[in-house]
């Protein structure tokens, strides 16, 4: 894994999040991208560092869920 492959994985995630503006659970995003945990985590870190995604902890119904969604500001 190198910077280029991490950036490419981040692009895969970005396209999925941009195309379907909703909250995604980690496992759901993993399945949709086909990325391994290490690749997915690195790409999520890349997008988080750029301020392009948001995280939300689960609620009382899904306390261990991690939701990931696009940060898109219009204005």
Question: What's the short story on this structure?
Answer:
Helix content is 51%, strand content 16%. With 75 residues, it is α+β, with helices and mostly antiparallel strands.
Number of strands: 3
> Any guess at the CATH architecture?
Orthogonal Bundle
The unreliable regions are: none
Number of helices: 3
Pfam families: DUF2582
Protein name: Winged helix-turn-helix domain-containing protein
Organism: Bacteroides gallinaceum
Secondary-structure map with pairings?
Blueprint: H1 3-19, E1 24-25, H2 26-33, H3 37-49, E2 53-57, E3 66-70
Antiparallel strand pairs: 1-3, 2-3
Give structural notes:
It comes from Bacteroides gallinaceum. This is Winged helix-turn-helix domain-containing protein. With 75 residues, the chain is an alpha+beta fold. The chain has three helices and three strands, in the order H-E-H-H-E-E. Strands 1-3-2 form a three-stranded antiparallel β-sheet. Strand 2 and strand 3 form a beta hairpin. The protein is globular.
What tags apply to this protein structure?
3 strands; 3 helices; Arc Repressor Mutant, subunit A; 75 residues; DUF2582; alpha+beta; Winged helix-turn-helix domain-containing protein
């Amino acid at each position: 894994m190198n910077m280029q492959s991490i950036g490419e994985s981040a692009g895969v995630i970005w396209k999925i999040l941009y195309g379907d503006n909703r909250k995604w659970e980690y496992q759901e995003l993993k399945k949709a991208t086909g990325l391994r945990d290490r690749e997915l985590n690195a790409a999520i870190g890349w997008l988080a560092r750029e301020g392009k995604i948001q995280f939300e902890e689960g609620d009382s119904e899904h306390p261990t869920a991690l939701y990931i969604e696009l940060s898109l500001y219009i204005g």
